[in-house]
Structure to design on (300 residues):
């Protein structure tokens, strides 16, 4: 039996649109083995609809690897247990893709390198900002170079926490992405470049006084916020309650705040504030996963 544990991920991190992402200690766990024939899929998913046939995302990701390596199992058993909320901007689809590809690679005799799996996963997902941290952990700087995908992981200090604020509704990634403009101004682009560099500086040097400036964004958040009731009020309240930096996680609707690891009151304060919102929100505190995906073979 092959067991793969893949972390959740939070993409964009404000200014790092399609380029930055961070792994979080919330996991999707796959157990996969080859069987004599057929396809058996057992799913324990956190919300949303998961298919138990060949349209299953994990299975489709495994197929990509089998096509690449030329190895075709007679049958497959897949058990998927995910704690990552689906369609909430926490990388649930990337976790399925990365997990499926890593499992299929072991079945195929480990023919593909992690760099090759990163590229395949990025092609399937459409961009690398979630698959990078899901695979390598930490904060990942990712880039699609056409025929290759590059991701470099930076470890995040343990005294920071990520306050994950998840509402009771979802925003489809396709819908959220369709609202973005085809062209942006030079000023908006240059502003995001400087902010993203400031974010990298803050998280790698420990100078957290500049962290809130590192998540300022002009490329996607101003357009996506219309799908989240009370967006500006929520952002303002997080800073009032001690957030070091707040941003829209992925395409949303989850909102992420980076807070001091010793802050024991932030979550309660935000949940109290959310009682005034028209939707139900919950706030959980997570840490950065600096390890990334873990693959093991376990006896049955």
């Amino acid at each position: 039996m092959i067991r793969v544990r893949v972390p959740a991920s939070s993409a964009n991190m404000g200014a790092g649109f399609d380029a930055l992402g961070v792994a979080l200690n919330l996991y999707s766990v796959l157990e996969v083995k080859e069987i004599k024939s057929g396809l058996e899929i057992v799913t324990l998913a956190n919300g949303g609809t998961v298919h138990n046939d060949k349209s299953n995302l994990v299975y489709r990701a495994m197929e990509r690897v089998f096509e690449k390596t030329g190895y075709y199992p007679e049958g497959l058993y897949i058990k998927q247990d995910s704690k990552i909320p689906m369609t909430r901007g926490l990388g649930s689809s990337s976790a399925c893709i990365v997990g499926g590809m890593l499992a299929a690679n072991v079945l195929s005799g480990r023919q593909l390198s992690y760099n090759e799996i990163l590229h395949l996963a990025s092609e399937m997902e459409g961009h690398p900002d979630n698959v990078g941290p899901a695979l390598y952990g930490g904060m990942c700087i990712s880039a699609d170079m056409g025929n290759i995908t590059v991701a470099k992981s930076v470890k995040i200090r343990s005294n920071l926490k990520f306050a994950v604020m998840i509402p009771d509704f979802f925003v489809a990634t396709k819908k959220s992405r369709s609202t973005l403009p085809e062209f942006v101004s030079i000023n908006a682009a240059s502003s995001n470049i400087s902010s993203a560099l400031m974010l990298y500086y803050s998280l790698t040097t420990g100078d957290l006084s500049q962290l809130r400036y590192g998540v300022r964004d002009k490329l996607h958040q101003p357009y996506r916020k219309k799908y989240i009731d009370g967006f500006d009020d929520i952002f303002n309240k997080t800073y009032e309650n001690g957030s070091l930096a707040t941003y829209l996680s992925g395409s949303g609707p989850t909102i992420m705040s980076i807070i001091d690891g010793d802050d024991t009151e932030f979550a309660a304060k935000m949940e109290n504030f959310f009682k005034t919102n028209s939707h139900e929100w919950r706030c959980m505190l997570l840490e950065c996963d600096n390890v990334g995906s873990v693959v093991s073979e376990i006896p049955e």
About this structure: The longest strand covers residues 20-35. The first helix runs from residue 57 to 69. The chain has a mean pLDDT of 93. The CA atoms of residues 156 and 212 lie 16 Å apart.
